[in-house]
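Minutes, project huddle
Topic: does the predicted pose make sense with manganese (II) ion bound?
PN asked that the exact inputs be recorded in the minutes so nobody has to dig through chat later. Recorded below.
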Amino acid sequence: MIESELRNSTTAQVVAELQRRPAFVMVSHVKPDGDTLGAGLALGIALKRLGKPVYYFQQDPVPRNLRFLADAQFVSRDLPPDLPPDTLYVFCDMSDFTRAGEFLPKIERENMLDIDHHLGNSHFGAFNYVIPTECSTGTTVMHLLRELNVEIDRDIATCILTTIMTDTGGFMHSNTTPEVLELSAQLIRAGADKEEITEEIFANKRIAATRLLGRVIDAMVFAHDGRYCYSYVDDRMLAETGGDGEDTEDVVNVLRSQENVEVAALFKAYDGELRVSLRSNGRINVQAAAASLGGGGHFRASGLTFEGSLTDAFRAVEAALVAEGL
Ligand code: AMP
Ligand code: MN
Ligand code: MN
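Predicted holo structure (tokens), as shared on screen:
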């Protein structure tokens, strides 16, 4: 048995805790994606159906392309001041609670439930429900919803299908197993609106985003016999194209999908921060490379925040990838 399984709570233990607690705060990570938010909303909506008060904490605003999700209008960085002391904070889709950002008030470990599918999750909660073989945190939540015996209605189904489509890249990545496709079919039968998810998340691109993509493509560099492709986005590119951080989300996948490319990196140097997104075709473990620089993620998709100049980041990331066999 692997160590993370040893330290995990069982489905029954987590469900008992969900039934016992008087109130909940669903917590998503900074720079939210469809998985962190969709998983929290799905479980939050289910707990509300059971008569529990539920709040949603997210430091950053809901990205434009996720505002169609039910309950998204209740997501905020402000929490009510009078929450019961044994409110359970449910962290979705993060290997450590620090990924929730610095605006979250200090929370005792005994009030933390960690639901996730990342490799290297730090098991920071009193309750940890971490299943790295799941394609998304949303599909991890599904095990709890079944045991809670809540009806998977249209809103919940759309949230869970959003987590799947986000983290499988629209059923393209290798985590798209037969089980994932079977679950997706069940969710669509339960009323999940696949068309709406496709339109909101994958189509419907802003013109500024496409212009920004053009700039990133112009700046692409190929190294290591074309197996490594990297590029960057900075404040100037955003200002000149009218794009913003939300428009950079998918760009690294374009770099990775060039012929012969095994690993891609996008360096995002804007708003006073330098973040790096890494993607692999499966040969090189980019989670290990990111972790060696203080980040994390999955074997094929990871990220990190870098302290230093863009040039230093290019060098450090390349060295970390070489250490992983690039
Ligand atoms: P991104 O490239 O931002 O889409 O992130 C890809 C994956 O890496 C996601 O699973 C993230 O949760 C993870 N990740 C991104 N940035 C960090 C970070 N600074 N620390 C830990 N994990 C990260
Ligand atoms: Mn995520
Ligand atoms: Mn995820």
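Observations noted during the meeting:
- The mean pLDDT is 96.
- Residues 154 and 190 are 6 Å apart (CA to CA).
No decisions taken; revisit at the next huddle.
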